[in-house]
Records
---
Amino acid sequence: MGRIRNLVISLLSLTASASGAMAADITQARSGADSKIVSMRRLTEVEYRNSIADIFGTEIEVRGAFEPAIRIGGLQAASTSVLSVTPVGFEAFTKLADSIAIQVTEEKYRTKLPCVPKSAKEPDDACTAQVLSHYGRMLYRRLLTENEIKSAVSLSQGLAEAQNDFYAGLRYGLASLLQAPDFVFRMETAVPAGNKQWALDSYSRAMRLSYLMWDSTPDAELLQAAEKGDLNTAAGLEKQVDRLMSSPRLEIGMRAFFNDSLELDNFDTVSKDGILYPKWSSGIAASAKEETLRTVIDLALHGNGDMRDLMTTRKTFINRNLAADYQLPFQFEGEWMPYEFRPDSGRSGVLTQASMLAMFSHPGRSSPTKRGVAVMEIFLCEPTPAPPANVDFSAVNDTSGPLKTVRERLMAHANNSTCSSCHNHSDPIGLSLEGFDTIGQRRTMENGQLIDLTATIKGKHFVGAAGLGQVLHDDPKYTACLARKIYAFSRGVNSEDVPASAFKTAHQAFADSGFRIRSLLKSMVEDKDYFSVPAPSPETTTSAAK
Amino acid sequence: MKIDRRFLLRGTYQGALAIMGLPFLDCFLDNKGKALAATGKPLPVRFNTFFYGCGLTSQLWIPKTGGKDWEITSQLKPLEAYRAKLNVFSGLRVPLDDNPNYQHWSGAAAAATGISPTKVKEFDSKTIDLQIADVISRGARFKSISASAAGDPKQSYSSLGGANAIPAEASPLALYTRLFGPGFQDPTKGDWQPDPRVLIQQSVLSAVADNRKRVMQNLGPVDRARMDQYFTSVREAELRLAAELQRPEIQANVTIPPAPAEMVCNNALPNLRKATPLMARLGALALATDQTRVFNLSISEPTSAIFIPGDPLGYHESTHQEPIDPVLGYQPRVAQYNVDAMELFAMLLKELEAVPEGDGTVLDHSLVFAFTDQSFAKIHAVDGLPIFVAGGASGRMKTGYHIASDNSPVSRVGLTIQKAMGMSLDIWGQGSMEIKQPYTDLLA
């Protein structure tokens, strides 16, 4: 009995907090008169998985397929604000919702629920409401409205009664929340911030911070801070930002960012020619992706290092698969071993990791153009326009002719003035990486000729990957591009549309710190304009009023 | 008594369902099962698309003469067995008006929508398969199904418009599970029974759909359209459940096979040769058992990454980099890849033809629209796209013709298809591709 009384009290306190400090904000946000939804981002697969694990625990299995994303301005994150949910995507969300709800209402999980029903064989609206508001708040990243709770409770009630089973009813109420638009989309709501300015409401601030830092839904403390209005004050915001950033979970957030910005998802569909490269396997592909993420995280977070070193470091992590690919001995008991390439290895940062080299190549041949174009887009934020439609590329492929190396053949092609404007940018980069084949192995010869690794960009001469790494390391465009991408990633916008002024302060702090990523992050999210949004267009307000 | 989802829903909310309980639902459904005994309705006409990247080689595929008595060409050789059930279109124009020629995109988008695209990798309208599905799919379990033989869910040329492509099932096993996994009841078996759990799922979806009005508030116009799509998808899920309560009327004598094994699906030609017929077979069975009436199969992206192991470049790179053989007058390796694509197309036709139903085969009761992105990939040419339409649409489409360079826009094929599918439209396409005149000679 005491337990039930406690539960009732906590339920009451839940309701009480709804009418507490932030209630005005919520009511305002839901009433629609003076608020608007400024961004609606479909959860990515990883965000979904992380959110479910955080809300229900890692023992809940998430089995199913997710709709693929597309890349806009170098980031999949930008497409989450553009794409909707197709029938196939919704079907997947429905199945996931049901499977999660089944697991959460199973016998072995029930002790974790915030209340016990009066009887397991009949509806108990109070308990149902308590469970659904508890999880609903975490799923929707805000308190549920009375109507939202009522509707889910009534669904549960009807179905519990029909089946004489409290938990069967609860299951469906929960499933309805798990597939609701409020969960599968992260909806950012803005409210007037005075002076004709608009800014995100506190729940939306919590959401943006949490998905950037942890790639997951706001935790209890962050939600509480949002409810109390803490995120609207500089001191309150800083407290939460520091907390999020000092957590080891920052690693999860940064992994998501680098997986996206380094385009590592492409690796899932890379195929290599099994006859020319029998060594290649899906195991190597998965390992190569992981190698790059480990390298980045080790530098950025564990070592609190200079992000420019990502272009030059010879430090990496290898496992047995990669040792085979890199032709290195592997004498290690564990799975992953830190490794430093020798100074004469020709390796330079992520530029020469198997992931980048293999992703931007043909199935059976390296491609200086693909690699050059990728480096320009990924690290310098300089996308290459599509080539003219009617171009004769035949010279590039004629290996039986007098032009033995791909360099000679590319040069012949790039002499054409229409082509040269772009190739002169991308090819030197790619040609300096020709010391590595399509699966990332070192090589010195091509068709019996020594490969020439010299290149020139904007008057700077350099040799090989190490030379390229140094050029990028010293290029202020590289660090500006990183700042631009992380800003666009967190806001879900096209990086090409972001004005440099938007991340100017953050980039300055980044530079002042010697390019430590924590300084970049902190300065970016604490910037006075980070949560501000443009004033709504008349069209939006009209529609909201409808 | 007629089943009514809204009735049940109201029941749920007022607690009426609670009094009825599940046994009542069972009996309700039993009645329904009987009420829906075979009525002898004609089979629905089905629609398929087949997408292959990088086109063909004009000297090798275009038959010399038009009309009915055309001779099979070397690149169409794989399709010879289906010649009488095939229409071949050559010389179609793809006027792009003021839009750029988006390489490996404009041609495909024009064929699929009748509109010159304004953005790369986006369609300016719903694609033809979904326009047709809107009309013919009511009552089938899935409005449409898309599959990628190369194992990439993004290789789908079925789109709701913009970048919202319908994700493709990316392996035979995934396709099988979607079609014949949980939720499927085999209509070829005598013990077909509606599953009362479907009613419960319906009330859950109704609760989700009830959010609509609230959620649509406060959204800007772009997000409102996206949210509207979300609720359209909810509605489609409701229709799927409604369809699951009815025993499909089928005339095919088929057996649903056990699930295929997991397999590697990628761009390597040997793997495509294994995955394509398996997926085509599952598609044909899905049509025959009325799980769907629209099936889309792709074998590559427009920049076809298909490769024969040992060829360091693969298909797309070869189209641009292989020199034209001065004696032959074409790119020999590319020409081989072209034929490989036609062999994969023939695999789809073979499986559709292999399923007998009613007075013919699934192919006879279908249309198959095969399209591509370029007519001459080397220079990204779009005029003269190689387009094929197979199947008789239950007698509404005459077949066996080569419609030779009559200078029509590619949209004319799309309009003709929709006419044959029984759709009431008089005009299709936009700009210079707006067309009012179908190929009336092909329509029966």
---
Amino acid sequence: MSNKPATSQSKPNTPSKWFSWVGLFKLATVLSVIGVVTLIYLDAQIRHRFEGHRWSLPAKVYARPLELFNGQQLAAGQLDYELTQLGYRFVKRVTDKGQVQKTNRGMIIYSRGFRFTDGDEQSHLVEVTLQKNKVTSMRQISGAAMASLRLEPQLVGGIYPSHNEDRELIQLNDLPNGFIETLLMVEDRDYYSHYGVSPWGIARAMWANIKAAAVVQGGSTLTQQLVKNFYLTDQQTLWRKLIEAPMALLLNVHYSKEEVLEVYLNEVFLGQVGKRAIHGFGLASRFYFGQPLSEIKLHQVALLVGLVKGPSYYNPHRHPQRATKRRNLVLSVLAQQGVISELQKAQYQALPLDLSKAKQVSRYPAYMDVVRRQLQQHYPASALSNQGLRIFTSLDPWVQHQADIAMIEQIKKLNQSYGKIPTLEGAIVVSHRDSGELLALVGDHDGGYAGHNWALDTSRQVGSLLKPVIHLAALESGQYHLATLIDDGPIALPQPDGSIWQPQNYDRKSHGKVPMYEALTKSYNQANVRLGLQVGLGKVMQQLNQMGVEQTIPAYPSMLLGAVEISPMQVNQVYQTIAGNGFYSPLSIVQQVTKANGQLLSNFPFLVRQAASNDAVYLLQHEMRMVANEGTAKGVYRYLPKQQKVAAKTGTTNDQRDSWFAGFSGQYVATVWLGREDSKPTPLTGASGALNVWGQLMQHLAYTPYEDIKPETVGYFYVNRATGAAIPTRCPDGVAVPMINTSAPSINTNCGY
Amino acid sequence: MSSIKITPFKYISLCFLAIFLGACAGPGYGPIVEDRSVQARTSQRLPVATNNVHGTAANNSVTSTKPLKPAAVEKPQVYVQPKAQVTVTAQSSSNEVIAVVPKGKDVIVAKKQQEALPTSDQAVVEQLLAKADSLKAQDKMTEAIIQLQRAQRIAPREPKVYARLSALQLSLGEAARAEQLALKGLTLVPNQKRYQHFFWKLIAASRSYLGDSQGEAKAIIQADKYK
């Protein structure tokens, strides 16, 4: 207040200047020039942003496609699960793509078709006959023959740009029936007649709001909404308010209604999952319904259009009632406007929301983590997060699903049986026996995986899982056969520091001389250390390196009992080599990368490298089958039918800090690790812990017979169980073991005694 | 305010400024909705992979998304000694070339041996193999490999898949890979003479390409054993 007289004092000196017409004219000129400049600037902005705009399209990561063919064995529940994950609808009668009908004999599937790296798979209407989950015949409803049906691969994730926007681009001709009518009826009735802004729309909205004494309608046109989302930040500033309308007008001048609409459809924000922002109707349809936009029905269209007003307020997952109310309101508007009849309205309103039943939030995080790691070696981050690359991986959604379940359920059971085991963590790695494809990865105790991937980033001692490597090195030397007697007597070794290392058996007993196979089936520490020392530490380590463990391992005798720290992933690589008849193939994660348009950029071919001779590995496989049949791993047959052959090995480390189980069936190689985060002792051995996870997992995977392909150089010989001598077949106490013909002992005619 | 004098010159310069500003923010005329063939902008251009033998698809288009490094190969590349060209002339019509080896000996197998190979019990596998053959004939090697990998997924122990993969790698000059694939194939076919002959032929040709004449001689002996 005290300042006022001071300012007013100076004013009387210049009144004539302030009110002069010339001054006013100048001011008006300046303002209009500023106005024109602003307009020109805005116009350029509009054109630049609109035409030069490219959305950052995250790379899409796909699982392996499910291929159905005659004779294929599926697991119980697998086909239903995979179709559900793909957003197929189970209906009484198939009429459209993306639908399945169950029949007495199997299923009728109307596939969607997909552009694969090796060409388009067309949409097919196919009847698949199933018997005990095995495909026994396939025919097209049209009558045409069909050798195989490749379903679309499941989209399992994306590699998002830093702003976490995700979208799936659509064009106007991707829209389902009734979409445009619904959108315009609700959001902008005069869209095709206004100039970007609609005074009539504002007036109508105001009138509606006054009538309802609340904000029920917005007066913004779609064009204005687009300007808001597209060019302006979310902040409600005066400047934004001022330029919104002129920008909308300018947009309307430069571009056709169709062009603006198409951009709007892809830009509109329709939901948020964690950090990921769902933009555009294309992705929204996938996200909420698990279906491509072109497939959705009017009640689903009504829900998506209804969401524009408030994606989080009407979030159909969190607030199904609100969302239903909103959807039904949209349907009522359509009926009022004569787009649908009252009867149709009632029918649609009676339908459920039809949300996707598939798991939506961060599926398969541990697997996505290895995908990202592999891709980062080959592509720069920007290419992955904004060019819409398509990444085809080996991930098998069914195996992954079962692995997740097995881990969660078995950890729960272990916690019940042993009392809560604090910070119990776990990891599962599953690969395909012949191709080495990495099918599934569980990175922690509940499949949630936050940051630390226990399958890759944790190296723990492997305990007895190393014993098969000792045996392979021994068999490779040509000096041993499966019945060679090994001394299991006490052993004492001086250490470099002067102390004495005295490994003991788990049962703290010695078992005298035992055949080599028994040293493995019973996992005797003393016999195996002795065997390893006889073969030579260097040989054992060399063998391990050949099988895929690259790091150098200190050559102490304790490594023979698994004082070797490697990750579950590497363990699986070693067992993959055993399962693959001695051929190492790198666990393959990404198979192909294409550009958004399908053009192939990379193919990661199947490669093998021989790491051990086929006949030696055959003998080892036999030993490991015996481990499962009668040895430390026999607990797996609590889960599996006895006729299902598996080969496996348990592993337990000092003070039961780590519980391991690794092995393979006819089709799968799997490794399970359990242990505490802080590496403290647990109550678990390999057989009482990890075995259960492995067993439950294998129980739910498709059963493929374990094919034994016996090399020509190998024959079966009877040996005396007690003495290990080769004996005639008529003798008692005999057991048949395979031997390499050239290293087999001569037959003892006294039945080995 | 009064201190700002707007002269005609300033009007003109302001107009120029406006035009200039407009031009600066000017349009980069492009499609409104991307047609899903996202083109890399110059700043996002990636280094061009120089080595194209690791399964990277040939990419002749103007766009530039290429792998930083060639695809996953865990073992060091074997240096391949250039070979004297062996020209295959006047093939007997009873023979068939199963792998044309660049700068190496083509792998030729008697036709009757080929025809005698049992058909896979999966119709779809035979279809895929035929498709792979036709792609290979069109020189689309990567695409052919993709077909074979698909066949392998369906019939993981089908020796024909290994035979074709091996022949394909050999045709690409990847003799070390070809040899290993054939060796693995051999483990699937004990007591199946025709296949064994086939695989040993591939192994001999691979070793010859790699300059391993002793190994080649051994493989030839094996191949002859199963003739």
---
Amino acid sequence: MSSEATLQHADVHDAHHEHHHHETFISKYVFSQDHKMIAKQFLVTGIIWAIIGGLFSVIFRFQLGYPESTFPWLEDLLGHWAAGGKLKPEFYYALVTMHGTILVFFVLTAGLSGTFANFLIPLQVGARDMASPFLNMLSYWFFFLSSIIMFTSLFVQTGPASGGWTIYPPLSALGDASSGAKIGMDLWLVSMAMFIVSALLGGLNYITTILNMRTKGMSMTRLPLTIWSLFFTAVLGVLSFPVLLSGAILLLFDRNLGTSFFLSDIVIAGKILPNEGGSAILFQHLFWFLGHPEVYIILLPAMGMSSEIISVNSRKPIFGYMAMVGSVFAIAILAFLVWAHHMFITGLNPFLGSAFVLLTLLIAVPSAIKVFNWITTLWRANIRFTPAMLFAIGFVSLFISGGLTGIFLGNSALDLHLHDTYFVVAHFHIVMGVASFFGMFAGVYHWFPKMFGRYLNDTMAFIHFWITIIGAYLIFWPMHYEGLAGMPRRYYDFSGWSSFNMFSGLNEFISLIAMIVFAAQLLFVFNFFYSMFKGRKVADTNPWGSNTLEWTTPINPGHGNWPGEIPEVYRGAYDYAKDGKEFIPQNVPIGDDESKAH
Amino acid sequence: MKEFLIIALGVLIFVVIFQIAKASEYVSVLKGEKQSRKQNNKINAFLLLGFLIFGLIGVWYCNDLYYGKTLFPQGSASLEGEKIDSMLLITILITGVVFIITQILLFWFSFKYQEKDDRKAFYFPHNTKLELIWTTVPAIFLTVLVVFGLKYWFKITGDAPKNAIVVEVTGHQFAWEFRYPGSDKVLGKKDYKLTTAKNNLGVNFDDPASFDDIHVNTTMHIPIGVPVKMVINSQDVIHDVGLPHFRLKMDAVPGIPTTQWFTPSITTVDMKKKTGNPDFNFEISCDQLCGASHYAMRGVIIVETMEEYKKWLSEQKSEYFTLFPDKAPKDNSSDSIGKQITQLLPVKNN
């Protein structure tokens, strides 16, 4: 059935193809409906956001590393928010909040799955474009609108949202609670509503395309693992983002229309508020019902791309394809059933808490399967260390390190001590922040030749990799110790605390490394934009010797991807080292003497 | 000036890296791509091995540097915290072993199976036996952790023992306040709508139970060896009573009181001796972002002997008499206060 649909679609597109020869600048680069161009738009917007979000972390690390010093240039840069060269606490919290929001949503959700789902799904399943190119274009432009609103909020007089990226009410609901909870918070919520529309339009498109538009012979069990993980990512997004939307709308009501969904018994700034009967905890349930799947929305694409890249560069099939698919499936299901492990210390019923402990630690099983399968893929391989491969190996290393600390935090008894300390900061930055970034970098290095017909510079890529992995561990590993000492996260200054001020030397060290790592990312950004125009040209349609369909297109594929017919698929994506052949692309028919597929 | 120098240095390093990168690309064209790829492959394989070795040394070194600064060497200050510490130890041991084994395998395989001309990758798409092993083994270890964890969790979050001392903890931007029930062991009722500048907790002083209640700011006194049950409130946004030395924390949520109990096992004075730090104090940190001065929302807990605690308690004046000094009975020996007050005032029931 799927092949029929694909053929029909191909016909329509062949007819279309004629038009595309006289594309204007606007239809080609701005309001493009070509999934490849939309992917590049997501990627470039994501990179711009990543620079902004990263810069914010460098600025607030100045405060954490040198709480006693003043920096006159900060005042030049930020005006009254850094009067006298010292960040104000209110603005410190705004920076922390925006750093989280930007990196979680705008970079690692839109920038990561927006880019690679758009780019890879049609190319790897063998389709000319997404199911609905128009909705796909809208998805980007809603993201753009959302970005503009969020960016604007940085410049309002009372500052952007400052209640943390989790925006817990009442802090985010009451303008009297903090200056970031004034107009900045409304803009945050409106921007997030736009963002969710974008995520839903994108997600529906990805699911539809994967289910209906696979080329002839591309059964679900022949899909590359990238597609499987992008598929589950989209399912997670479509099912969980609407819940955050409802939370955001209710919060807007509480803020502006006098409702009491999340407010009760509050006295603030000397005023007794009339709100009664609401529950601040209800918001946390709504938030984390998205918030937890969200971390898998961020992580799964990185897992999928790393699986693909590790297999291609090991010149060896990914070990346990079905187990890899099964474990992603298990993770996706469990992702919906663990949200309250963020809420063990909110006064949650202990019995309910125990159920969430069990389900949370259960996630470690499919995660362990994936790790062992990646490692086994490397065993007796013939490994080429392309920059993409290095980042994929780095991803596995970081996923192990950060995943294991999840076993601490998911166990509610330990969470009593570790919750909201630097242990949590270390955990989620390693497993979801840096690891997903590594997956994203791996993806960019691997598919850049397909995107732009040029290579990135290898030397700069190697320097980028080594500084980043060493720096990431130097920054986040020692933070576990700060967390074990109970040092709370989201503190502007520790010098007033006899329990936590012994880490000031370490904080300074971490800040210094953070600046170096940030500079190394600028090297990547430079490499990216330089190579886009001046990089070494790709001469071979299949430079990595890969099996998947995107490498059967011309070096610079036009809209519609394949100039002739879409290739037919005869085998799974991982026939490497089979029957003495280095690799057998998916579109090569099964030979008569070929050993049976696994 | 200094900033300019740093920026100039940064730009210089950047330019140098860029030039080297360009040059190496030309060299690779001259040498032949295959040759230069082989060379890069070898370098990166060695670096990965080096990263493994130096990384493991770094892990050990980091532990050496910072273990002493975590709270483990000084031990937990509560009986419940000791359970959490032993749980942490088990978890660190299990995850530590897994960490070391998997990282070694990952980087060692990467180094060992680097591309060589005479090497052929081994076709090994799956093996059911192996996959079953690494599904069940982690599941067994996780079961152990879950069983231990939940055993402690239910103990710690279960009902407080009957003999527990009750202290009401209230958080607001940006301070902690404490209320003790006095000799009748019942806290006076509260209604947030009664809050005024003087009666800042909104206590209902028509409730006779409130007459002997004691209200103190910032510093909480508790005796050693007796369970303490905190009834936790917030007046404005969500706060969190963070007790790192006792290994506990609990959110303070407006409108939804929470509870947490623990049994202090060492006094502040003894802890000062144990840590060799004369300035040592058990601190209450706010662990839930609550606004601009979140980082300065500090409270102190003084754990003392029962005698010291009783003496301290008897020195405190009840909030009722502080607010309404004219109604104070002449004889305010703590036992008789409650009775006298009931005689003095008509009781309103609400």
